[in-house]
């Protein structure tokens, strides 16, 4: 034992075997030596008292707090009504009055079945299983209205408290911020929702519910007006509150009261252009009080008051800024009213009188000391003499007529052509209404000029325009920019294409400077008058050149809108076309060269449009060919003159005309010649160059022409020309016309590298632009062109998808900065002091956002062109087509950026799926859409109807 033996044999018989072992009652302590304590042996603690130590919280109170909150409790209802979601309680219909219509023929019961039925419990229709108590059965049968009424009253009380708390918050904040105009307007709109719960009550089941509804609407409008009256007393200079008050009063006031309120507003704010703008809109659109003569008198009153401010007669108020342009826009609106009222002669006479008065006044009347009344007194003699006026044949101007003092002889009346046309219409027969409409339409197309013959020979007195009708609407313009704006606006009114491209900026050359400065004359300023035109189907060319369908096409038969009055779209209106040509030719002679260049471009655009219309209307090929020769000869004569020999936009329009005639080789030569001249100095991508925008436009037209020809011919020659010229333009800064040879690979890599560096350098100008001078505008233009150049290189060297990634990357970058505005909440409305401080910043942000939207529109146009061209380059590009789903997503985004873009609308309408046709397009968030937008929405249904 002492030797610590282990085995029994080691003891040598000292111990018996049965006594060699013993049982120990003590546990081995090594068994409890675990690395961690077992989870079953860990101590757990539960807190029974929630709160501070030492607080006297009884057990009963703790138990009551632990009860589950049920949905029908009043506290739970308050929580439910804290959400903005409304719940309408529907009345329970009584099932007793309904007849039970079974779908089988009932059979009488036997005696055994009746006895068995008496022994069983009787079950009703609402308790077929016999499991409901009497109260539940009454509730299901529509009885027991006491509890239902109590629940409804409780619900209505909670709703009342909810809306009353919101109204209290508004009142408290308005008491602290009486000058917060957006908050007042928000409170007025809040009344539409709150009035149902705070003031109306529950009278929906009353027999006089319609009368009560009218009374409630009137009471609601009166409540809004009372709120606005209080707001106007504290914010008298706020026009938004005044306009909101008049808009609400339109529903409850009579015409006399409404005109009186507008007259008071005009009297208080005679120098606010917004007030005149809204007042003229009201006079033109208010149905019950509309009268053409009254509307014309209102325009005369507006022009007279603004003219008095301009001349210094009206001294109580200072004249508004941009007064000249505002007067021009008012005159254009009046011309629209007259044209839509069937008085096209007055519209043309107004334009002629304004041009003669502002451009051709005698020198002794052009001084500032001469009052307007003195000019008009002498001008009346010229107007009544019926000498040729601006735009007519042999027109020499008011001053020359006064100097020569020639006696005017009335021309002979020639009605042979129009009389024959009227005889043909009558000979066709038909109803009286159809004949009357056809005759009036024919006369409107031919008799649009003011009567020039002897007044005694005039059968229709409305064709004569006396001076008394025009004199209240005449005014004097001081600056050359305002006069040029007058000519552009009326050219746009007459249908001359692309006049809006010159209304944003007008380059003027200052003495001693070689570079052109930009003078902004747009009406984007808030103080400027915003023209509002009520469009008709005769005022537009649906989708322009993007919608080319012949007259024999079925869709064109459905969308055939006959124009009322003269129009460039009608091949028969040759006199109107000649009149517009004379207008542009005579207008180019009264301006300096900087303005004359743009008028010449408009003139060439007019010639091109006339050719396209003749071509679209299936004019005789011989006549069309002779007209094309005369047109080309005329343009070449323009290019031979010294002032237009180096003017690149004229070459651009000349190339487009050659392209429209089908002379693609000649168009390519015109573009190449102009690009070689414009980039001879090696600064093609220099944004400080005066000709930089023209060079970019020329190269864009050249690339479009070459890629279109590549898609048709599939000879790889024209795509090589694009690659070669693009590399030379980027690397050397010069345009080098290729002969179809491949561009060296090293040049392609150099061009890609330089384009990426330039894009990275100028990409910030899109996101962060604070100035509006020309270099910044050219930076935006260059950035967009760089994206197109890189995409073209990717398309022709790598593939279609990498080219799409180039566009999507830059578009996503711009969209990440130009986000949609977040709707204002009650707490987010800025204080008046804060808004006054941030006004310049907000104005700059709004301007920058508009610039970014224009860049996005241009990028989307180029992106769609790339998608269209790549689908035709199957021999060069693999997988060059885009799925319809992806294309519709791109088009939807493009329309959201530019809702009025005709190309986006047309392509989207032509790529609609059957789901879109069933559900319709809800992508236009504007309150009032133009006619082009509305027609684009019905165009898919028209196409579907034609194909069926």
TrEMBL record:
Superkingdom, taxonomy of origin: Eukaryota
Main location: nucleus
Keywords (A to Z) from UniProt: Nucleus
Cellular location(s): Nucleus
Signal peptide boundaries: none
GO biological process, one term: negative regulation of RNA catabolic process
InterPro entries the record matches: NRDE-2
Annotated family: Belongs to the NRDE2 family.
Protein's name in the database: Uncharacterized protein
């Amino acid at each position: 034992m002492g030797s610590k033996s282990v085995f029994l044999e080691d003891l040598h018989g000292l111990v018996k075997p049965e006594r060699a072992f013993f049982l120990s009652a003590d546990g081995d302590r090594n068994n409890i030596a675990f690395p961690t304590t077992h989870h079953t042996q860990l101590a757990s603690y539960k807190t029974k008292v929630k709160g501070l130590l030492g607080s006297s919280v009884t057990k009963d109170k703790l138990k009551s707090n632990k009860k589950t909150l049920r949905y029908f409790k009043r506290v739970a209802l308050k929580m439910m009504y804290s959400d903005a979601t409304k719940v309408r309680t529907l009345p329970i219909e009584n099932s007793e009055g309904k007849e039970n219509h079974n779908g089988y023929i009932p059979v009488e019961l036997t005696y055994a079945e009746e006895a068995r039925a008496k022994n069983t419990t009787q079950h009703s229709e609402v308790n077929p299983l016999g499991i409901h108590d009497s109260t539940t059965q009454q509730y299901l049968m529509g009885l027991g209205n006491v509890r239902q009424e109590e629940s409804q009253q409780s619900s209505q009380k909670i709703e009342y408290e909810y809306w009353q708390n919101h109204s209290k918050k508004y009142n408290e904040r308005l008491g602290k911020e009486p000058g917060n105009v957006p908050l007042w307007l928000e409170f007025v709109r809040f009344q539409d929702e709150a009035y149902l719960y705070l003031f109306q009550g529950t009278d929906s089941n009353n027999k006089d519910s319609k009368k009560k509804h009218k009374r409630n609407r009137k009471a609601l409008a009166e409540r809004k007006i009372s709120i606005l009256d209080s707001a106007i007393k504290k914010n008298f200079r706020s026009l938004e509150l005044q306009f909101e008050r008049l808009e609400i009063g339109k529903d409850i006031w009579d015409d006399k009261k409404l005109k009186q309120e507008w007259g008071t507003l005009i009297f208080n704010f005679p120098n606010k252009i917004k007030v005149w703008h809204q007042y003229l809109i009201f006079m033109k659109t208010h149905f019950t009080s509309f009268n053409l003569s009254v509307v014309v008198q209102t325009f005369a009153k507006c022009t007279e008051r603004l003219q008095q401010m301009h001349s210094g007669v009206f001294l109580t108020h200072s004249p508004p800024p941009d007064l000249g342009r505002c007067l021009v826009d008012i005159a254009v609106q009046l011309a629209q009213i007259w044209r839509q009222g069937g008085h096209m002669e007055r519209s043309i006479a107004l334009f002629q009188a304004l041009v003669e008065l502002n451009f051709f006044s005698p020198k002794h009347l052009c001084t500032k000391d001469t009052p307007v009344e003195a000019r008009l007194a002498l001008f009346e003699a010229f107007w009544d003499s019926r000498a040729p006026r601006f735009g007519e044949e042999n027109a020499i101007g008011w001053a020359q007529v006064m100097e020569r003092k020639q006696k005017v002889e009335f021309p002979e009346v020639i009605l042979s052509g129009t009389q024959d046309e009227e005889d043909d219409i009558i000979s066709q027969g038909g109803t009286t209404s159809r004949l009357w409409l056809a005759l009036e339409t024919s006369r409107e197309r031919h008799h649009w000029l003011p009567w020039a013959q002897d007044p005694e020979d005039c059968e229709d007195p409305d064709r004569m325009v006396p001076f008394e009708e025009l004199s209240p609407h005449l005014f004097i313009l001081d600056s050359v920019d305002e006069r040029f704006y007058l000519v552009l606006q009326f050219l746009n009114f007459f249908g001359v294409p692309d006049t809006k491209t010159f209304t944003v900026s007008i380059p003027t050359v200052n003495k001693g400077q070689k570079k052109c400065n930009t003078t902004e004359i747009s009406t984007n300023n808030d103080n400027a008058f915003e023209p509002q035109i009520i469009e008709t189907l005769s005022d537009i060319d649906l989708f322009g050149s993007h919608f080319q369908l012949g007259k024999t096409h079925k869709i064109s038969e459905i969308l055939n809108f006959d124009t009322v009055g003269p129009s460039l779209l009608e091949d028969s209106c040759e006199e109107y076309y000649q009149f517009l040509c004379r207008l542009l030719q005579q207008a180019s002679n009264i301006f300096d060269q900087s303005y004359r260049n743009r008028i010449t471009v408009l003139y060439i655009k007019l010639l091109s449009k006339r050719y396209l219309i003749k071509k679209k209307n299936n004019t005789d090929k011989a006549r069309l060919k002779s007209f094309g020769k005369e047109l080309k000869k005329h343009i070449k004569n323009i290019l031979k003159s010294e002032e237009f020999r180096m003017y690149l936009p004229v070459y651009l329009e000349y190339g487009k005309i050659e392209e429209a005639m089908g002379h693609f080789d000649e168009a390519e030569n015109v573009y190449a010649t102009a690009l070689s001249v414009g980039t001879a100095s090696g600064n093609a991508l220099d944004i400080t160059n005066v000709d930089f925008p023209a060079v970019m436009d020329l190269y864009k037209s050249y690339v479009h022409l070459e890629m279109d020809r590549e898609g048709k011919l599939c000879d790889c020659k024209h795509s090589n020309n694009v690659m070669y010229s693009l590399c030379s333009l980027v690397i050397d800064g010069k345009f080098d016309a290729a002969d179809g040879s491949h561009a060296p690979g090293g040049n392609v890599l150099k061009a890609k590298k330089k384009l990426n560096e330039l894009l990275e350098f100028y990409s910030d100008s899109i996101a962060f632009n604070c100035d509006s001078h020309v270099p910044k505008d050219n930076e935006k233009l260059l950035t967009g062109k760089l994206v197109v150049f890189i995409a073209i290189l990717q398309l022709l060297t790598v593939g279609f998808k990498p080219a799409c990634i180039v566009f999507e990357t830059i578009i996503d970058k711009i969209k990440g900065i130009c986000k949609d505005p977040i709707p204002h909440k009650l707490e987010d409305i800025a204080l008046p002091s804060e808004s006054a401080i941030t006004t310049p910043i907000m104005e700059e942000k709004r301007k920058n956002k508009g610039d970014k939207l224009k860049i996005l529109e241009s990028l989307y146009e180029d992106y769609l062109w790339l998608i269209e061209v790549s689908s035709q380059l199957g021999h060069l590009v693999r997988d060059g087509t885009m799925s319809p789903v992806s294309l519709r997503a791109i088009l939807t985004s493009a329309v959201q950026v530019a809702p009025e873009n005709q190309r986006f609308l047309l392509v989207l309408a032509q790529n609609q799926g059957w789901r879109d046709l069933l559900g319709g397009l809800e992508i236009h968030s504007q309150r009032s859409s133009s006619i082009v937008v509305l027609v684009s929405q019905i165009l898919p249904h028209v196409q579907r109807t034609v194909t069926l």
